[in-house]
Amino acid sequence: MPEDTSEVAELLSEFNTKISDLESRHELLRERVISFGGGFVKSRDDLKKELNLVKGDISKLQDTIGNIQENLRYILAQLDNFVRKEQLQTFEKYIKLWEPLKFARTEDVQKMIDDALRNEANAGKEALAG
User: Which residue segment(s) compose the domain that 20 sits in?
Assistant: First the structure.
């Protein structure tokens, strides 16, 4: 029986060593899982923050694009109020034909007629006198 006891003691010692090894491995794995979980939570929180920033940027971009579209609509609506180059050239041609600076006012024409009549009357008097 002493042999049985020593074998049992040996087996128990071996089991104890194996259990101790398993416990230390279990503790290491538990620490790794906790560490990994903490890192995962931190990464998730960081990603949420980044995602919120990106959503904010997208919202600002959408507002900016909306403003640009509104401005483009306004510009396109105002284009009808502008003269095209061809229209301006045609208008310029007509102005050159009319030469509005050579037009005379009614008063100016009346004065020219009066002056001409006076000159003619003076010329007639000089012809009779002479």
Answer: 1-82
